[in-house]
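Suppose you are handed a protein chain with no further information: no name, no annotation, nothing but its sequence. What can you learn? This example shows the usual starting point.
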Amino acid sequence: MSVNIQTLKDIRNYLKHELKEIYPEQEIIGITNLIIKTELGIDRLHMLLDSDTDISVSDAKKITAICQELKTGKPVQYLLGVTEFYNCTIRVNDETLIPRPETEELVDLIISENIGFNRRLIDLGTGSGCIAIALKKVFKDAMVTGIDISGEALEIASSNAVLNNTNVTFLKGDIFHFDAGSVFPSDIIVSNPPYVTESEKKHMNSNVLDFEPHNALFVSDEDPLVFYRAILDLSARVLNPGGKVYFEINEKKGVEMSWLMEAKGFSEVMVVNDINGKNRFVKGRFYG
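A reasonable first move is to predict its three-dimensional structure. Written in structure tokens, the prediction is:
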């Protein structure tokens, strides 16, 4: 395909043609929207209403250069250093996991079940801070804390809080050796810890395996719920009576997670399916 990019419509057609062997069509649309917004400063409404907007030669060259890098498999979010998550702009780098649509569903679940929440909430393993920041934007009067073991990730999370005009507290901490006294008793704990087993690597795309941080993705097959066990133990010490926990989970571990939570003294345990009908979330309450 000869490159002749002069309008927004040309960008769409060019990227659709060049990336069709790598990404499904809907993903190409999302990639294109993100590139246009981030690199050209054009919002989605403008994209839809005026696809004949002229593109400069320099911007056209920028688009083709990005496209060539996308063909190497590098995720567009890392190329641009930014992504969109639940109406937030989130910076990412190779120290942070790229937020997934399923995690937006987790945020939506928490918001829908806790309308007007104004107490304390903790996001364990916060990474880029996307969950904590998205929840704080909705729960404006809540006191939100994000905790992570990675100092580099916390720097990104802190910058994302500023970028989205949210007041979130970030703390460095290891959930396996965490001092419960370092945080106030809270009413909601949310976490999206590593849950992909090592044996599932062979089913994953190279753009994930080659570029995203493995310590934020994978757990051993011998103890795939190790993070959840530690988080539940910590939650039992940190939650106020009646406090809630929300997890994103491996779709194959719904039953095991229910058993684990009940064994740890949590009640009202429920597995929730994602939009694709997969066991993706589990929630429960702790009454002490």
